[in-house]
Specification:
Layout lengths: L12 H13 L21 H9 L1 E2 L8 E2 L3 H14 L5 H13 L3 H8 L3 E2 L1 H4 L10 H6 L5 H11 L15 H7 L10 H14 L2 H14 L5 H14 L4 H8 L6 H13 L9 H10 L6 H15 L5 H13 L11 H19 L1 H12 L9 H13 L4 H13 L5 H15 L3 H12 L4 H17 L2 H15 L4 H17 L1 H6 L1 H5 L10 H16 L4 H18 L4 H18 L18 H18 L3 H17 L4 H19 E3 L13 E3 L11 E3 L1 H13 L18 H15 L9 H4 L2 E3 L13 H25 L5 H26 L13 H21 L2 H8 L5 H11 L10 H4 L4 H11 L22 H6 L13 H19 L28 H9 L2 H21 L11 H31 L8 H17 L3 H16 L15 H14 L3 H17 L18 H17 L10 H22 L8 H29 L4 H28 L2 H4 L2 H21 L6 E5 L13 H4 L4 H20 L11 E9 L2 E4 L16
Parallel strand pairs: 2-3
Antiparallel strand pairs: 1-2, 4-6, 5-7, 8-9, 9-10
C-alpha cells in the first residue's frame, strides 16, 4: 500500500492518488470524526465552497471523498472563468484562498482535499480518463491560483513534520509533496525551487529524503542547474542524504563539468560510505563517466572500491559458510544477509553499466591490464573480468588475452582465484556458463600455467556452485577427456581426481557422465587410463550402496570385454583397469580417509573378490608375454604407490614368490643341457658358488626355447611337460616380487638378496673374431640375450640401490659396471644387425606403437650409408668399442670439430651409427628408478688419479668410475628433460606418435615434477663434487700436456668420457635451475629469519635469473619479493637502532628499484606514501607501509631514490622530429612523471635537512637538471606547438624545483659548509644553461618576444629571505644602468601576472609570456642563477 512504502520518483501521479484513496476506504467502518457527520455535503456560505459547487465539485464531510460532477478539465476551466469574471477580481482570489485555508484547518477536510475526488456515476461514461485528481491538484492546475496555493501548502506542511502517518495510516507530508509533482505548468519555477530547498533545509531526515527524490517531477528544466548547485552544497553538509541526492542528480539536466565536480566529491568520500548506499553511488559515478576520463575514473574507483567494500567482512563470510553447509542449491532470499544482497546489487549496477556503455568495460579492462605489481591485483579485478566476459561478447578475446598475460607473469595466482570464488560465489554462480566457457578456452592454450589456471576454474566452480553448475562442470571435463588432445585429457582427468577427493558425494551424483568415458578409450594413453579407472573405482567402491552398484557392474563388463580381446591395445586397457580397480578394492583401510571413513578392514568376501579379479587378469594374459609383463608392471606400480590391505598383500607375496622361483631360478651347479646354438655358462656371478646351494637365472635356455618355439622346432627334453615361460617377463616379474617383499618387510630385502649376486646362464658374449662369421639369426639371438641381461641387471640395481652396507654397495656398483660393459658389447652386435627389433622393455601402447618406426628408420640410415663392412676392417685393429662409445657420447658437444687430432678422426663411421642406434633403443631398456641416482654419492675415481695413488686400489670396488658416472648422468638428464621441459617446448610434430616422448618414462610419469625436483636437489652436493673433480681432471690434463688436449699423451677414451660427464652435469644443472630452482628457492622467502638472509636469497635468485629462460617473469617476481622484504618488520638488534645495516638496505632497495617494472611509480609510492607516514609518526617509529623506513634509514632511501631517478631519466632517448606523434606523447608523459617524483623528493629537504640529505640533493639534483637539458629539452622543442599546455605545466613544476635548488645554494653559502659549497658552482652553471636552453626553445617556436627577465630573492630552506651584502647596500651604478629597463618590464609583468614573484637582487627569474593565435595565456617558469652570462633582449 502507498502509505506503507516509500514513493519513488518513477511512480506517476495517478497511481499515487488512486492507491491512496483505496487506502482511506478501509477504515470507514471503524471510526469517524466527531466534527462532521459522515457522508454529509459540506454546507458553508464561504465563497470557496460556493465557487467549487458552481464549478462542479461537491465537498463532503467526514471520511467521504469529494465528488467531481464534471470533467476535470471542465472544472478547471469553469472555476478559472468564474474567478476571472467575478466583479471583485483579483480580490476574489484572496478570498477564495482564505476560504481554502479555513476549510483545511480541519484534518479530515485537508486529507480529503489531498486525496483523489470521487466521480459521479452518471459522469463516468463520458470521462476519457480512468482516474481523477485531488482537489488541491486541480486547483494547482489553475495559473491564477497556483502561487497562493503553493504558499499555503508550504505553510501547512511543517505542521506534519513529526507526524508521519495519521490514524488512517496515511502519510500527510508525502501526500502534500505529491501534489506538486507533474504539474502541467509552473507559474513561478524559481520561487517554487527556492521554497522547496528552504523546506529541505528544515525538514526531518525522512521527509528530506522524500522531497529530494521528488525533485525531478516537481521542478522544471530551467531550474535544474539551481537545484543541482543546492543539492551539491547539501551533499557536503549532510552525508546521510548522499544516496537520494545522487539519485536525483542522475535525473537532472546538468552541466557535465558540474557533474565532474560532484563525482570527484563523491569519490573522495567513497571510503567512508556505508555498504548499503554503495550501489546508488556507484551507479552515479558510472553514469557520469565520459570517454575522456573513463580510464582515470575506473582506476581510482577500482582501487578504492576493492579496499573497503568488495571484500566481505568476516561475519558475512561466516554466514556464507553456514549457507553452504545447508546446501548451496537453496535460492531462498531469507537465508542471505543484507550485506550479501548489497554486494549482489552492487554488481548488478556494474553489469548494467558495462552492458550499455562500451567505454566503461574497455576502461575497466585497461585499468586491470595496466596493473603490473602482483600485490596490486585484487579479488575485485577477477570478478570484474568474469562479469565483462559474460556481459560483452565483443570483449571476450581481449579479456582472454589479458588473463593469459597476467597468468604468465604470475600476477594472478591460485590463492587470488580461490578467494574470489569463496567471497563472491553468489555473484559468480549466475555466470557459470561463461566461466566454464573461459576455462574451456584456457585449456586449449599450449602454456602449462594457463592450462592449470583453466583447471582451477573448473575445480572452484564445482566446489562453490550449485548442483546444476556441478553437472555442467563434469560435462565439460568429460568433453575435454573425449577430445583426444593429450594436454586437455591429462588436465581434465587431474581435475576429476581432485573433485573425487574434494566432494565425493557431489561427484557421485554425476558419476553417470564420467562412466560415459568408457565408450571413448581408444585415444587415451595408458597413464590417462589409470587416472580414469582410479576415478571410477573410487566412486564405485567408496560407499556400498545401490547408487554405486551400477558403476561396479559397468566397470566389470568393460574390463572383462577388454581382457578377452585378442588385440593387445584393448587387452592393455583391461589389465590397467582391472589392476587399478583391484587396488581401490584392496586398499588398506586401517587409517580411515575422507572417502572410506565408514569402512573397516578387508573382509574375507572382499578379499575373495580381489583375488578372483587378479586371477582373471593373470589367466587372460598368460598366453601373451607382453600382456603378462604389463600385468606385472601395473601390479608393481600399484604396490609401490598404494597401501594394500595386509590380507591381499600376503596372498600376492606368497603367489608371486613361488611362481618366480619356479619360472626363472635354477641351481647354479646344474648347467642346462640342450641343443643350444652357443655353450651355456654361468656368468656375472659376484661370489664363488662351489656348494650345492647356489642359484642362477635361467636366461639363455628360456630365450632359446621361446625363439625355437616361434620357429616351430621340436621342444627339448628339458622343457617337455613344463610350462613355457617367456624371458620377457623376467625383469617385470622381479620388480613385482621386490616391491611386494619390500612392502611386507618395511624395505628389508634379505629374503631375495641372493638374486643380487647370483650368476646368469649365458654364453660368451664378447664377439671377438667370430662376429664376421655369425649369421644374422645368431646375431639377433645374441642381441636379445644382451638386452634381457641388461634389463635384469637394471632391475637388480633398482632393487638394491638403497642398501647402506659397504658390501651391498660394492655389489650394486659392480652390477652397474656390468651394465656399461654389456652396452659396449651390444653396440658391436647392433652394428652388424641393422634390421634387428629388440625385445620390449616397457609394455604399454605407446611403446608398441613406436617400436617399428624407430628401428626401421635407424636401420634404413645405416643401409643407406653402406659403410659397415668397410669401417669394420679399418676400426677393428685401431680402437676398442669402449673408445667408440666415449667418442660418440662427446661428438655432439664438441665445440671445435675442425680441430680434431688424428686419434679423434678415427672415431667416425660405424661407431657413430651404432651408438646412435643404441641411443634410440633406450625405450627397450628397463626404466631406472629415481632412487638409483643415490649412487652418485659415491666418490669419483679415474685412472688418472689411480696412476699416482695406487694405494686406493683396494677400495676401487666401492667407488664410482667415469663410465658408470656417465651412464647415470645420461639417464638422469633424459629424465629431467622429460619431466621439466614445458609441454610447449616438447610438442610432438604432426603425424608423429603422440606418446613417443614418454617412452621409457612410464614410472617417472606417475610422479609429480615437484617430487622429481626434490629428489634431484638431494643430489646437488654429490653432483657438485663430481663437477669439481672433473674440473680438476682437466686442469691437471692441460698442465701436463701444455694445454694441448689431443696430444700424444692423452688417453682418448678417458678424455671423452670425462668430457661427456662434464657436459651432462652442466646440462642437468641448466635444466634444473632454468626450470625449477627459481620457484623452489622463492618459496623460502616466508621463513627468512633476518634481513641479511633476505638479501642473500635475493642475490641467489638474481644469479639464477641471469641464466633463466623466463627472465622477464622472474624479474618481476624478484621486485615483488624485494618489496615484501622492505615492507616486513624485522627483529631489532639494539633497543635504539635496528640491526639492518645501511649497506644491506642500500643493496636491497637498489635491487627493488632496478627490477620493478615502473621505477617512477615505485619511487612515488615510497616518497608519497611511506615518507609522509614517517613524518607523522613518533620519533622512534617507522613508516607503516615500509617498516624499514625510519629516521635513521631515511638518508639511505633518499640517496637510492635520487640516484635511480637520475639513472632512469638518462636512459630516455631524446625526442627527434622524425619520431611519431605517439612517441612524443609517451615521452612527454614519462617526463611529467619523472619531474613530479623529483619535485616530491626535493621538497623533502624542508623536513629532513641533515648534511647527508643536502649533499645528496645537491649532487643528484644537478645531474637530474643536466639530464633534463640533454634528454627532455629536445623533446619539448618538437612538442611545444601541439602540446603547449602539457609543456607549460611541466616547466612550471620544474621551475619550483629549481627555485628550491637555488635556495639550497644560498643555504650552503650562509652556513659556510665546504662539503656542500663545492657542488654549488656546477649547479649554478647548470641552472644558467637551462635559461639559455628555454630561450632557444622559444626562439625555435617563434616565441622569442615572450622571453622576459626578472629578479629572485635569495632565501633559505624554510623560505626566509637571506640578507646578503648586495641586498643591504645600495645597488651599484652599473646594475642601475644595465638592469633598469629590464626591471621596469619586470615590474610591468608583475602587475599583469597574479603569481609574479617579488623583484630583489641576488638572482634572476625568467618569465615567459606566450601568445597563441588570438589568445594570450601568460605563464612563467623560474630558472635561478647567480649571474646572467648573456644579454636578454626584451
Amino acid at each position: 500500500m502507498v502509505s506503507k512504502r516509500r514513493l519513488s520518483r518513477s511512480e506517476d501521479k495517478e497511481s499515487l492518488t488512486e492507491d491512496a484513496s483505496k487506502t482511506r476506504k478501509q477504515p470507514l467502518s471503524k471510526k469517524t470524526k466527531k466534527s462532521h457527520i459522515a457522508n454529509e455535503v459540506e454546507e458553508n456560505d464561504s465563497i470557496f465552497v460556493k465557487l467549487l459547487k458552481i464549478s462542479g465539485i461537491i465537498l463532503k464531510t467526514g471520511e467521504s471523498q469529494n465528488q467531481l460532477a464534471v470533467d476535470q478539465i471542465a472544472f478547471q476551466k469553469k472555476l478559472f472563468q468564474t474567478l476571472r469574471r467575478h466583479p471583485s477580481y483579483p480580490k476574489i482570489i484572496e478570498e477564495f484562498v482564505s476560504g481554502l485555508e479555513s476549510y483545511i484547518e480541519d484534518e479530515d477536510s485537508f486529507r480529503n482535499c489531498l486525496l483523489s475526488c470521487e466521480r459521479l456515476q452518471d459522469e463516468e461514461a463520458s470521462m476519457g480518463a480512468s482516474y481523477s485528481k485531488s482537489l488541491i491538484k486541480l486547483l494547482l492546475g489553475i495559473d491564477i491560483l497556483q502561487p497562493a496555493i503553493i504558499k499555503t501548502l508550504f505553510e501547512k506542511l511543517p505542521e506534519y513534520f513529526f507526524e508521519n502517518k495519521n490514524s488512517d495510516e496515511i502519510n500527510i507530508p508525502r501526500l502534500i509533496v505529491s501534489q506538486l509533482k507533474w504539474l502541467d505548468r509552473v507559474v513561478d519555477g524559481k520561487d517554487l525551487t527556492t521554497k522547496i530547498m528552504q523546506l529541505i533545509s528544515i525538514a526531518p531526515e525522512n521527509l528530506q529524503h522524500d522531497i529530494i527524490t521528488s525533485l525531478p517531477e516537481i521542478v522544471g528544466d530551467s531550474q535544474h542547474a539551481d537545484v543541482g548547485k543546492e543539492l551539491s552544497d547539501l551533499l557536503i553538509e549532510n552525508t546521510s542524504l548522499t544516496v537520494p541526492i545522487l539519485d536525483v542528480l542522475s535525473s537532472l539536466r546538468l552541466d557535465p563539468n558540474f557533474l565532474l565536480k560532484v563525482r570527484q566529491l563523491v569519490m573522495d568520500k567513497l571510503l567512508s560510505i556505508r555498504l548499503e548506499d554503495l550501489p546508488v553511488i556507484i551507479k552515479f559515478i558510472l553514469h557520469s563517466i565520459t570517454a575522456m576520463d573513463a580510464l582515470e575514473v575506473i582506476s581510482e574507483l577500482r582501487e578504492k572500491l576493492d579496499l573497503q567494500h568488495c571484500v566481505l567482512p568476516s561475519r558475512l563470510q561466516a554466514s556464507q559458510v553456514k549457507l553452504k553447509s545447508k546446501g548451496r542449491a537453496s535460492s531462498s532470499g531469507n537465508q542471505e544477509s543484507s550485506g550479501q544482497n548489497c554486494i549482489i546489487l552492487l554488481f548488478d549496477v556494474i553489469k548494467s553499466a558495462i552492458r550499455y556503455e562500451k567505454t566503461i568495460s574497455e576502461a575497466w579492462i585497461k585499468a586491470i591490464e595496466n596493473t603490473a605489481s602482483v600485490s596490486e591485483h585484487k579479488v575485485f579485478d577477477l570478478v570484474m573480468l568474469f562479469i565483462i566476459y559474460s556481459t560483452n561478447t565483443q570483449t571476450k578475446k581481449y579479456i582472454e588475452r589479458v588473463l593469459r598475460n597476467k597468468i604468465r607473469s604470475g600476477c594472478i595466482q591460485e590463492q587470488l582465484l580461490q578467494s574470489t570464488f569463496s567471497i563472491h560465489y553468489l555473484v559468480l554462480k549466475d555466470m557459470c556458463s561463461s566461466i566454464l566457457s573461459l576455462a574451456q578456452s584456457l585449456l586449449h592454450s599450449p602454456d602449462q600455467s594457463i592450462i592449470s589456471f583453466g583447471s582451477l576454474l573448473y575445480k572452484y566452480a564445482f566446489k562453490f556452485f550449485d548442483t546444476y553448475c556441478q553437472q555442467e562442470v563434469v560435462g565439460a571435463l568429460v568433453t575435454h577427456i573425449c577430445s583426444g588432445n593429450e594436454a586437455e585429457v591429462d588436465t581434465a582427468l587431474d581435475v576429476l581426481l581432485e573433485l573425487v577427493v574434494l566432494n565425493p558425494s557431489a561427484m557421485m551424483m554425476n558419476a553417470v557422465f564420467v562412466k560415459g568415458i568408457l565408450d571413448y578409450l581408444d585415444n587415451i594413453s595408458p597413464q590417462q587410463i589409470r587416472k580414469l579407472f582410479y576415478v571410477l573405482s573410487t566412486l564405485a567402491f567408496s560407499k556400498q550402496n545401490e547408487a554405486s552398484s551400477h558403476i561396479q557392474d559397468d566397470m566389470h563388463l568393460v574390463i572383462r570385454k577388454q581382457l578377452s580381446s585378442t588385440v593387445f591395445k584393448y587387452k592393455l586397457i583391461g589389465i590397467i583397469g582391472a589392476v587399478t580397480m583391484a587396488g581401490i578394492m584392496a586398499a588398506d583401510r586401517s587409517e580411515s580417509s575422507s572417502l572410506t571413513q565408514d569402512r573397516t578392514n578387508l573382509s574375507d568376501e572382499q578379499c575373495t573378490q580381489v583375488t578372483s579379479l587378479l586371477q582373471l587378469v593373470h589367466s587372460c594374459s598368460e598366453q601373451s608375454p607382453q600382456a603378462s609383463a604389463l600385468y606385472y608392471d601395473e601390479f608393481a606400480n600399484l604396490i609401490q604407490h598404494e597401501k594394500l590391505d595386509p590380507k591381499a598383500l600376503e596372498w600376492v607375496g606368497h603367489t608371486i614368490c613361488n611362481d618366480f622361483q619356479d619360472a626363472f631360478v635354477v641351481d647354479s651347479c646344474v648347467v642346462p643341457e640342450g641343443d643350444f646354438p652357443f655353450p651355456v655358462k654361468a656368468l656375472y656371478g659376484l661370489e664363488e658358488y662351489n656348494t650345492q646351494d647356489g642359484i642362477a637365472i635361467n636366461l639363455l635356455p628360456l630365450l632359446f626355447s621361446q625363439d625355437f618355439a616361434k620357429d616351430g622346432g621340436p621342444v627339448t627334453s628339458q622343457e617337455s611337460g613344463q610350462k613355457l615361460v617367456s624371458p620377457l617377463c623376467l625383469a617385470p616379474y622381479f620388480r613385482l616380487l621386490r616391491l611386494c617383499v619390500e612392502r611386507q618387510h618395511n624395505g628389508n630385502l634379505e629374503e631375495i638378496d641372493g638374486l643380487l649376486d647370483c650368476p646368469v646362464f649365458l654364453t660368451d658374449l664378447e664377439p671377438g673374431e667370430r662376429l664376421e662369421s655369425m649369421s644374422a639369426k645368431e646375431c639377433s639371438f645374441m642381441c636379445s640375450l644382451i638386452f634381457l641381461t641388461l634389463n635384469w641387471f637394471r632391475e637388480i640395481v633398482n632393487a638394491f640401490c638403497r642398501e647402506t652396507s659397504p658390501e651391498m654397495k660394492g655389489k650394486v656398483l659392480t652390477r652397474l659396471k656390468h651394465i656399461v660393459e654389456l652396452q659396449i658389447i651390444l653396440e658391436k652386435y647392433l652394428a652388424v644387425t641393422p634390421d634387428y627389433v629388440p625385445p620390449l622393455g616397457n609394455f604399454d601402447v605407446e611403446t608398441l606403437d613406436i617400436t617399428p618406426h624407430t628401428v626401421t628408420a635407424i636401420s634404413a640410415k645405416i643401409r643407406k650409408k653402406g659403410k659397415i663392412e668397410r669401417k669394420q676392417e679399418t676400426d677393428g685393429s685401431k680402437t676398442s668399442s669402449s673408445d667408440t662409445l666415449s667418442e660418440e657420447k662427446n661428438s655432439e658437444c664438441d665445440p671445435t670439430p675442425s680441430h680434431k687430432g688424428p686419434l679423434n678422426k678415427e672415431f667416425t663411421g660405424k661407431e657413430e651409427k651404432t651408438s646412435l642406434l643404441l641411443h634410440n633403443s633406450h625405450a627397450f631398456f628397463r626404466e631406472l628408478d629415481i632412487e638409483v641416482f643415490s649412487i652418485l654419492h659415491c666418490g669419483l675415481v679415474t685412472k688418472f688419479i689411480l696412476d699416482t695413488e695406487m694405494h686406493t686400489e683396494a677400495t676401487e670396488v666401492v667407488q664410482l668410475g667415469p663410465p658408470e658416472l656417465l651412464f647415470l648422468l645420461e639417464d638422469l638428464s633424459q629424465k629431467l628433460e622429460s619431466m621439466l621441459t614445458p609441454p610447449i617446448a616438447r610438442r610432438v610434430p604432426f603425424l608423429k606418435n603422440k606418446g613417443s616422448r614418454n617412452i621409457g618414462f612410464s614410472h617417472l610419469q606417475q610422479r609429480s615434477a615437484q617430487e622429481i625436483v626434490h629428489c634431484v636437489f638431494q643430489l646437488l652436493t654429490p653432483m657438485c663434487n663430481h663437477l669439481e673433480n672433473i674440473h680438476n681432471y682437466f686442469q691437471c690434463l692441460a698442465a701436463e700436456n701444455h694445454s694441448v688436449v689431443d696430444g700424444p699423451g692423452v688417453k682418448v677414451q678417458e678424455y671423452h668420457i670425462m668430457s661427456s660427464c662434464y657436459q651432462r652435469l652442466l646440462q642437468i644443472f641448466h635444466g634444473l635451475f632454468a626450470c625449477q630452482s627459481f620457484h623452489y628457492l622463492q618459496n623460502f622467502h616466508q621463513s627468512i629469519p633476518s634481513f641479511q638472509c633476505a638479501l642473500y636469497l635475493i642475490r641467489l635468485l638474481m644469479v639464477i635469473l641471469e641464466k633463466s629462460t623466463a627472465s622477464t617473469q622472474n624479474k618481476e617476481k624478484i621486485a615483488s619479493l624485494a618489496r615484501q622484504f622492505l615492507c616486513r618488520v624485522w627483529p631489532s638488534g639494539d633497543k635504539e637502532k635496528s640491526n639492518i645495516s645501511n649497506d644491506q638496505l642500500h643493496a636491497l632497495l637498489c635491487i627493488y628499484l632496478e627490477h620493478t617494472d615502473s621505477i617512477l611509480k615505485a619511487i612515488e609510492e615510497i616518497a608519497g606514501v611511506g615518507i609522509p607516514e614517517l613524518i607523522n609518526s613518533p620519533k622512534d617509529a617507522s613508516s607503516s607501509t615500509f617498516p624499514t623506513l625510519t629516521r635513521h634509514t631515511f638518508v639511505v632511501f633518499f640517496r637510492v631514490m635520487m640516484a635511480e631517478l637520475e639513472k632512469t631519466v638518462k636512459k630516455i632517448e631524446p625526442g627527434t622530429a622524425a619520431d611519431s606523434q605517439q612517441i612524443h606523447e609517451e615521452k612527454l608523459l614519462y617526463w611529467n612523471m619523472a619531474v613530479r617524483d623529483f619535485s616530491i623528493l626535493i621538497n623533502l629537504i624542508k623536513v629532513f635537512d641533515s648534511h647527508p640529505v643536502l649533499h645528496v640533493c645537491l649532487k643528484y639534483g644537478r645531474l637530474f637538471v643536466e639530464a633534463f637539458l640533454k634528454q627532455c629539452m629536445p623533446l619539448l622543442d618538437f612538442s611545444f606547438r601541439k602540446h603547449r599546455e602539457d609543456v607549460l605545466s611541466l616547466l612550471e613544476t620544474f621551475q619550483l624545483d629549481t627555485r628550491l635548488l637555488h635556495h639550497l645554494c644560498g643555504h650552503s653559502k650562509i652556513h659556510q659548509d665546504t662539503r656542500l659549497t663545492q657542488h654549488v658552482p656546477l649547479l649554478k652553471k647548470t641552472l644558467e644553461l637551462l635559461v639559455c636552453r628555454v630561450k632557444a626553445m622559444l626562439t625555435l617556436n617563434n616565441c622569442r618576444e615572450a622571453f622576459w627577465l626578472g629578479n629572485l630573492k635569495n632565501r633559505d630552506l624554510q623560505g626566509e629571505e637571506i640578507k646578503s651584502q648586495n641586498s643591504q647596500e645600495s645597488t651599484a651604478d652599473e646594475s642601475e644602468d644595465d638592469m633598469s629597463s629590464q626591471a621596469s618590464k619586470s615590474k610591468a609583468t608583475e602587475v599583469s601576472l597574479e603569481k609574479a614573484p617579488e623583484s630583489v637582487t641576488d638572482g634572476c627569474i625568467l618569465l615567459i609570456v606566450l601568445s597563441w593565435w588570438s589568445r594570450t595565456l601568460p605563464t612563467y617558469i623560474y630558472c635561478q642563477m647567480l649571474l646572467c652570462p648573456f644579454p636578454f633582449p626584451p
